[in-house]
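In response to a reviewer's request, we include the raw inputs and outputs for one of the modeled complexes. The two entities were modeled together in a single run.
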Amino acid sequence: MKIKAPDTVTFTKSGFCPGCGHGLAVRLIAEVMEEMGLSDKLLTVVDVACGSLNIESWKFDTVLAAHGRPLPVAVGIQKVRKDNPVVAYIGDGAAYSIGMAETMHCALRNDNILTIVINNSLYGMTGGQCAPTSLPGQVTTSTPHGKDPKKAGMPFKVEDAFGGFESIAYLARGSMTDAANMNKSKKMLRKAFDKHMAGQGFCLVELLSPCPTNLGLPPLANIDWIADEMMKYFPLGEFRGGA
Amino acid sequence: MEKLYIEPDRCKGCGYCVRACNKEALYFTGNVNQKGYDTVAVDDEKCNCCTACYRMCPDYVFEIR
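The model returned the following C-alpha cells for the whole complex.
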C-alpha cells in the first residue's frame, strides 16, 4: 500500500517537541481533508497554545484567536463562510477551562462547528500546570505533591457534561497511542467532518495525546501512561451521533 | 515492489515507529541528524510495508512508494 503524508502538512518541518501528539492529530486532519477533497477549503482557528505552532506548519488558512476563544471566532467565520469546513483546534485547557463558557454555549446553540480537542491532561505551552483533565495524584508544576481531588476535583469528562445534549451532532473520544487507535480516531474525524459538512451541528472529537516534555516522561513511557492510567478516566468511544 | 523510505532529517527520535513495527524492522541507528536526534532506519528484508510506522509518526518521516 503506497502512502505519503499530505503535502498540506509536510511542506515544512513542524516545531513540536519529540513525541508530541499534535503532529499526529494534524496529519489525521490533513488525511481526512485530502480524502474529502476539501484541503483547499478548510478554515482553522487555533488557540494561543502549542496548537498555534501549526500556523506555519500546515497550509490551511488559519486564524489565531485569543486564549481559550477559538470557538466563538470559528462561529463567526462559519456564519460568513457557510460552504467551508471550519475547525476549532484547541487543547483541553482551552476547551474545558479557559474557554469552558464558549464550549458550553456553542454546544447549547448547536453551532455548526467542528471542535478538535487535544487532551494531554495538563497545560502544555505554559509549562505543564494542572488542568481540569489532570488525573488524581498527577504531579504537575502547580501540583508538585500530586493533584488532590478534594481540592481540585476529579478529571473533567466531556461526555458527562455534553453527553446529555440531544441536539449536538457528534461527540467522541479517540486516542493516539498506537496505530489501531490512530485508525479509529481517523474514522471519528471523518464522521465528524461528514456531519459538519452536512450542517448537522456541533461536533466535538477529543483525542488523548502525549506531551512527553511536560509530563516528564520519555515518549514511549508517555503513551504507556495514557493507555494504562489516562484511559481509566477517559474511556474511548462515541457518546453522541455514533450510529 | 513497494518500499519504505525514511527522511532522517525530519526524525525526532521518539521511537513510536520502533514500537509500532510488528516485524521489528525499524531500529535506531545511533546516527544523529542535523537537529541532534537519534534517527531510525529500516531493515528492508523484514519490512512488509504495513504502514504502522507511518501511522504513528508525528513528524512524517515515512513514505511507502
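As requested, we also summarize the result in words. Chain A has ten helices and ten strands. Chain A has a mean pLDDT of 95.
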